[in-house]
Amino acid sequence: MTVQPEALKSSGQNSKMRSKKVDSPWRSAFRRLLKNKFAITAFIVLIFMFLFSFVGPYFSPYKDAKISVRDQYKPPSAEHWLGTDQLGRDVVLRLMEAGQISLLVGLAATGIIVLIGVTVGLLAGFYGGWIDTILMRFADIMYAIPTLPLLITFGAILSDLKFPPDQRIYLIMFVIGVISWMGLSRLVRSQILSLKEQEFMLATEALGLSDRRKIFSHLLPNVVPIIIVSGTLGVAGAILLESSLSFLGLGVIPPTPSWGQMLSSANNMIDFAKRPWLWIPPGVAILITVVSINVIGDGLRDALDPKMKR
Amino acid sequence: MSQKALVEFKDLHTEFYTEAGVVKAVSGVSFQIRPGETVCVVGESGSGKSVTALSLMRLLANNAKIVKGEIIFDGRDVLKLKPHEMRRLRGNEIGMIFQEPMTSLNPVLTVGEQIMEPIIEHRMFSKREARKYAIELIEMVGIPRAHEIVDAYPHELSGGMRQRIMIAIALSCEPKLIIADEPTTALDVTIQAQILDLLRKLKSEKNVALMLITHDLGVVAEMADYVVVMYGGRVVEEGKVMEVFKNPRHPYTEGLLKAKPIIGERKERLYTIPGQVPSPLNLPLYCHFADRCPYVMPVCKEQYPDTFIDADGHKVACWLHAEGARA
Amino acid sequence: MTQYIIRRLIESIPTIIGASIIIFLVFTMAPGDFISAQFGMDSKMTQEKKEELRELYGLNKPLPERYAIWMGEIVKGNFGESYLYKKPVTDVINTFVWNSFILSATVLVLQWMAAALVGIVAAIKQYTLYDQLVTLFVFLAMSLPSFFLGLLLLKLFAVDYRIFPLGGMSSTGIPHEGWAYIKDVMWHMALPVITLTMLSIGGLTRYFRTSMLEVIRQDYVRTAYAKGLKDHVVIFKHALRNALLPLITLFALELPGLFSGAIITERIFNWPGIGKVTLDAIFQRDYPLVMGFTLFISVLTILGNILADVLYGVADPRVRHR
């Protein structure tokens, strides 16, 4: 908009005054989200990816199939839509099982990001002073160290320690979380700082509320929108990080599958050049999932923050 | 009426398309501004006075559309001009001053640069000439140390100084008309008076017409030759300033004048017009003021009033003045 | 201004020390060192011989002492010696970082030019089909895993249609000088440059669009139109100058990336840059090299932060005069 006509401003105020039922911020955010066709489509796609990964295997005719080298490296056909891998496993089924791991790693890593990021941001913003200085300085330090070399080194250490593959994914989740929380903590902190300036916080001061009460009933609810948006986008970031690491053979390792791990078959020149059905489908799965999450996150940001509405 | 009009709005309709529906911001506005004359457009916010001015400049938001009417400026229909012809008009033949001096100047350019721009664009001055002229203009609007101020950034100046710079920009190409949209609303009272004095002085020196948009009747009394009162996107009354002040014919104007405090008179409490400004989203088909009007008659809620003109050219859109209505 | 820069530099010292401690701890606490990575499988190496070697490399001293030695040498400009290349770490970095630099610099230029153009036009044509296509493209680009895009391009353009080479930086048998060499390198650069540009362009386009949209609705843009200025003057002089202010910060923050290399892309395209060298070094447990390089990038990132604030101050008169 180039010009802010007065007529519009006053019309907004009037209609607000006139409408009988006042929407809660959450309700109106939800209504705005429903209007966003991009985000709704993305949401449906994402639900499909979850169903595909978690419910899909029950419908696969190969769910009880044994490894059989006789069936290895079959190109896509009517029986095996996306062909088979080096152990004769159906790639579609493999894709579903890998999806479970990739999605779980993404969600769990984000849980850790949110836990650390929000705690650090809240404490630093609320208490200020030396607590703030130390926590934020620590965030600066973590931010300065490049992520990927650190992550790869962790992966290499895990390989040295010969961690069993099924336990390894928990450590991967944890490590991704530990190196990715700084952005959220800065956002939360700056939000808390500006909230502290507002009158209702002065009122809690005057009422003599306990710190616990102030943090949990007055500050935390106000940063929930930021947490939701960052958290959503964080899942996308975590899935990408996991897949990069697994692609290098340092994340999720066989026999546990993940999309990134499936893609690592492209490291083999023959598989890469001659058997694209082994690595293109997991790549597409990552792309679809991450695009959906990013679009949803963006839609949530628009919906939760009407000022940024474009 | 003898002189030809400089600007003539003819049955202007401007609408905004919003999420909530179509807003008829201006519906059927007609009035004239003669060369060298000061016309004050008065009304509450939302009455359509700024939209009328922006329609003339064709600077409306993307979601706005002029759906009907003509705006004749100096013999040309502004609404039919091509974009490049429109650009020749803006800043060159029509200067505009906005309400918010704090945000109307570009924060990353020096004020000199911003004054020079229209001069170079329209008057083909060289940079050096333009700069010299910009310094003269800064002096003309009453800012001391013009040689230093020319290189200052807007944030280094006070609100009043910034508004003076806006006036300098508006006057830089010696336009035929200046539109001032609530130029003093955002300023302190003492500064307001200075800015109005400056506008009045420069206006008479340069013999430029002034379209002054305001909600402040004090400003009107001080500045106007002619008054246009707007309500709900329409002109409800217009006439010479003395006429309108002495003998307001529309109940809304009457209410506005009653609501204005008069120095030396102490009342128990100031008069306020009862009710609210109607929402521009769903304006009634009958008189927009009928729901708040103390003299409301049955016909007022049936049909929008015609415009009635008396012998002095004082116009009013109110059924009270129809033939045979209550005197 | 000078005072401000000096203050910021002094303030950054604790951050740098903190980063160095974390880097040191991560790599020294890591089980497995160069000796076991190199000779772990070697049956001829006895335990005693390994210990001797560890002694030689100073791997058996207490941690604080090792940190002090490492840091003390670094302050003197000595980042230690790479086990793998048998050369000082600084030499190794200096050899390979420039290969990464030409890749990243090309990407940086392309990315900013394209993102500016696409983002600004999208902002001006908000809600049009063009804008929506750009938004869709932005999301796709933001969501592509680097290795997948790289692999797809490689498969398509180097394996199926042999338009571009499979990898490396130059063809064998071509003299390393003159026009032929430059053209050969550019030919090898094409795919990695496309990959990296595609990856980074999405977010930046979005920043340009958002920033422009924010500025376009400001009062001073309306003033500029009211002065009768040409559309391109309003957009590029009045709007863009303001829209660029927040982006300057972003630009400065990207500068350290010129030297950090792209680990995964360089690996896929077998580009002899510092990213690929780092990855090999991690696999080979050449920790002095990895530590030195990681610290180097950390320091650059911290300096980039300071540069971002300084540049912002230079560009925005409201900050400059404070």
Automatic annotation (TrEMBL), chain A:
Location within or outside the cell: Cell membrane
Q: Where is this region: Disordered?
A: 1-20
GO CC annotations, alphabetized: plasma membrane
Task: Keywords in alphabetical order, please.
Answer: Cell membrane, Membrane, Transmembrane, Transmembrane helix, Transport
Q: Does the keyword Cell membrane apply?
A: yes
Q: Name one Pfam family in it.
A: BPD_transp_1
CDD domains assigned: TM_PBP2 (cd06261)
Which topology term describes how it sits in the membrane? Multi-pass membrane protein
User: SUPFAM superfamilies under this entry?
Assistant: MetI-like
GO biological process annotations for this chain's record?
transmembrane transport
Could you list the residue ranges that cross the membrane?
A: 38-59, 101-126, 138-157, 169-188, 219-241, 277-300
- Taxonomically, which superkingdom? Bacteria
**Which residue ranges does the record assign to the ABC transmembrane type-1 domain?**
99-297
Q: Which PANTHER family match?
A: D,D-DIPEPTIDE TRANSPORT SYSTEM PERMEASE PROTEIN DDPC-RELATED (PTHR43386:SF1), OLIGOPEPTIDE TRANSPORT SYSTEM PERMEASE PROTEIN APPC (PTHR43386)
Q: Which family does it belong to?
A: Belongs to the binding-protein-dependent transport system permease family.
This protein is called Oligopeptide transport system permease protein OppC
TrEMBL record, chain B:
**Where does it localize?**
Cell membrane
The ABC transporter domain covers 7-257
Q: Which UniProt keywords apply?
A: ATP-binding, Cell membrane, Membrane, Nucleotide-binding, Transport
Pfam families in alphabetical order:
ABC_tran (PF00005), oligo_HPY (PF08352)
Alphabetical GO CC annotations of the entry are: plasma membrane
* Molecular function as annotated in GO: ATP binding; ATP hydrolysis activity
Q: Does the keyword Oxidoreductase apply?
A: no
Q: How does it sit in the membrane?
A: Peripheral membrane protein
| GO BP annotation list | peptide transport
Q: Does the keyword Cell membrane apply?
A: yes
Q: Which family does it belong to?
A: Belongs to the ABC transporter superfamily.
UniProt xrefs under NCBIfam families = oligo_HPY
**Listed name of the protein:** Oligopeptide transport ATP-binding protein OppD
Q: What organism does the UniProt record list as the source?
A: Candidatus Carbonibacillus altaicus
TrEMBL record, chain C:
Q: What stretches pass through the bilayer?
A: 12-30, 101-124, 136-158, 185-208, 244-269, 289-312
Family annotation (Pfam families): BPD_transp_1, BPD_transp_1_N
Q: Name one GO cellular component term.
A: plasma membrane
Any idea which UniProt keywords this protein has? Cell membrane, Membrane, Transmembrane, Transmembrane helix, Transport
The ABC transmembrane type-1 domain covers which part of the protein?
97-308
SUPFAM superfamilies, per the entry? MetI-like
Q: Which GO terms describe its biological process?
A: transmembrane transport
PROSITE patterns in UniProt: ABC_TM1
Q: How does it sit in the membrane?
A: Multi-pass membrane protein
Compartment list: Cell membrane
Homology family: Belongs to the binding-protein-dependent transport system permease family.
What is the designated name of this protein?
Answer: Oligopeptide transport system permease protein OppB
> Which organism's genome codes for this protein?
Candidatus Carbonibacillus altaicus
Question: Which taxonomic lineage is given here?
Answer: Bacteria, Bacillati, Bacillota, Bacilli, Bacillales
